[in-house]
Every structure is written in structure tokens, then in C-alpha cells.
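Continuing from yesterday's entry. The apo prediction looked reasonable, so today I'm repeating it with S-adenosylmethionine included to see how the binding region is handled. Same sequence as before; SMILES copied from the compound registry.
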Amino acid sequence: MLERMLSVRRPAHESSVAEEGSESEGDESKTRKSYTNLSLLFRNLTTRFGYIWPCLLFGLLFLSLFFLPSFITQSRTLVCTPFDPTSRLGLFGFGGMDSEFGSLGVPWCRSKQGKTSEWTSKDLLKGLEEFVPIYETRPIKNNMYGMGFDHSFGLWFIAKWLKPQLMIESGAFKGHSTWVLRQAMPDTRIVSLSPRHPEKYLRKGPAYVDRNCTYLAGKDFIDFGSVNWKTMMRKHGVDDLTRVLVFFDDHQNELKRIKQALKAGFRHLVFEDNYDTGTGDHYSLRQICDQFYIRGGGHSCFKDSDEARIRSKRKGFWDKAVDLDGLCGPGEEWWGVRGYMRDDFNHTNKAISYSEHFQNSRYVESLLDVYWELPPVAGPSLTHQTRYDPARAPNPLVEDGKYGLFQRLGLTRLDKSVFNGYTQMVYVQISEPDS
Ligand SMILES: C[S@@+](CC[C@H](N)C(=O)[O-])C[C@H]1O[C@@H](n2cnc3c(N)ncnc32)[C@H](O)[C@@H]1O
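Holo prediction written out below.
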């Protein structure tokens, strides 16, 4: 319990990585140079005029340096300026973000041994550099209702890192995620399950159909939970299920999916939409692990509480920030979505009691060897995303203010709409609960 309370805050990303691409290096020499020039100037003036005039001069310089910028900032708020998310952040104040983060709490699942991913932010940044030009060649440029840039990168990175012997995808839509998997592993067989075959979309516009893929789609569609995976794996020559990567983007209850995957013997899973509490169309791992007994992870449903005020303020800025109406059901049921466990694109939903919800988190966490949420690729002032609330997400790989790095990675070349799909994609490694 104590361990849980202490570990509820996410560790910051290794600063060494962020600093690697920081723009401060170049600027440092500039600062040093101007400092040397200033001290030289001071020495020259004192030798010529004594101390009074130089002191007055430096006093004036000091005053203008400190008051001019603040005057400019203040006066900017008086005029109409075009939309700029940086100024939104300015409203909260960069320092304020952290405390809000803490007061709302950011839920995530605890793994059995507290193990996290093998890869570091440094690996991710390196991957990002490699992935941007690949992403630019995607066949489906407008993938509305499918994955955007952040999750495409996450899936590509995980698949490339794990080097699976087989990849399974549930929920293909027009085939963008199939294409992403193919970019990561050019020769690995894919099994794709989706009620509508991606080739059907080809009639109307761009879609991707893979040549090295077994489609359980269209008339051959079978739900992931009904496939005889033993037979299917034998058919594909896979004898080691720990070498299989399963990707879910089918908007099904993730508790149901994790149980089915465990029963089949799969260990490596990625869930595309890991919705926050109070949002989304299916019960997600993040919702499941959001438990009242975690300090800071609980939610207040009182309309005049501090949390309510913070939430409603944030809702004005971020489309998917959760407000009290989304969070609290009629009996103040905040878990899942207003006390419901949603499934199948919210076509079915079931009210669950808090104790059932609590047991679900206990069960899920008893399976987890690794739980890793993909961070957003870059801060909202760089991507201009308006969808997710940055206070409810891990620190971005390219943090706000690091425009140079954002540009160097090629991210400025992408249309900003591709950054508007982040929903905390998660990679988990699972095994039977310890006895
Ligand atoms: C959000 S889309 C997937 C987007 C896709 N992965 C991409 O990157 O573009 C969800 C897909 O899940 C499919 N779907 C619905 N029910 C399903 C099920 N039970 N099993 C697998 N796929 C399902 C839908 O038809 C739809 O194509």
C-alpha cells in the first residue's frame, strides 16, 4: 500500500536524453561571450569615468532587462492574438502543471515486480528520428478514426524492438496499423482480424492490403476470443507464444481481451486506446487501475471542490480532458465511465459496483510483468494538439520549448492533425498470477 502511494507519481524521463537534443548547448556559448563583453565594458568605463556613471548605466540596463519583457508579455494579453497553445500553457503556468498533475493524480497499472520497459527515452528519440521519414510514405494520408502519428510510432517502435515471430492485429479498419507493423518487420507474418476486409475500402480511396498476412476478415471474420489459437499458431509454424505480439485496436473491453490473451498463452500485448477514466467507448487498463485507494488517484464529485474547478478549467482547453459530468454518475460513480464498464464501441455497457471494479484492478495487476504507456511524442505547444489533457499523460518525448529538437526530428514537416489522436497507448507483458 505504502509502495503504491509512493509510486503513484510517474518518474520524470531521464533528463540526459532530453538534454541531448536541447538547444541550450549553442546558447550557452553565446551567454558566456556576452558576459565577457559586459565585464570588459564595465572595466573600460570605470577606468575612464570612475564608478558613479557606470553604476548608473548598469542600473538602467538592469531595470530595462527585467521590466521590459514583463511589460511586453502583459501588453500582449490586451490584444487579440491568433490561437497559440503556448499561451494556453502560460495561463496555467509551466510550474503549475506539475502540481495539478499531482492533485488530479495520473492512474496507471502497477506490475508484479515493478519492472518497466527495457527501452529508454534515448532509444525512443532515436527511433523517432528513423520513423518520421517512414511515416511520410504511408499510403493512407488521412486516417481519421484510425491511428495518428503518436500511436503509429509507438506500435512501430515496440514491434521493431521485440522482433516477434508473428504479429496479430485485432481491428484493422483501412489497414494503416497493418502497414505500420509491416514497416517494423518487413518479413514477419501478420494475422489480421477485422469484421470488414481492408480491401473493401480500396474502392473508395486509399487502403492497405498486405501480401504476407492471413486475414480473418469479411466473411472469414472471427472474433479474437473465438479463434482456436493453438491450431492457428501451428498452422503458422509458431511454437513459442512468447515470440508473438498481439495488437488490439478493436475497442473491446480490455479486461475481456487480457483474459482471452492470457488463456491463449500470449505474453506481449499492445492496446491502442487506453482511455482515461470517464472517457472512451470501452473499459481500458488505465480505467481498471484507477482506484480510489491510491492517494491522488481518487476523484471528487463535489461541484465546488478544487478538483472540479481545475477540471472545468482544463476542459475548456483540451477536448478530452475529463470534467465532472463525464466522471460522476448519478450516485457519484466515478470509475470506468460513470460507473459503467463499456464494451464493443459502447454498444454494450454494464454497470459495475466499486468492489467489482476494485477486484478487476487486483486481477489485472496480478498478471502484469510490464506496464508501459507510450509518452506523447511532443508537448502540445509544439504539436498544437487539443485532444488530450497533458496533465493526464506521461511527459512528452520532446518537451515543450524544445522546438529545435522537434524540427531536427522532422516533426515540423507533418500536418498538425496527425498529432490529435493520442490516448495513452499501452504495452503490457503478462503471465499467470504468482501462486
Ligand atoms: C479504430 S478502428 C482500427 C484502426 C486501425 N487499427 C488503424 O490504425 O487505422 C477499429 C476497427 O475495429 C474493427 N472491429 C470492430 N469489432 C471488432 C472485433 N470484435 N474484432 C476485431 N475488430 C473489430 C472495426 O470494424 C474497425 O475496423
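Comparison notes:
- Residues 121-295+365-430 form a domain with the Rossmann fold fold (CATH 3.40.50).
- The first helix runs from residue 2 to 7.
Will overlay with the apo model tomorrow.
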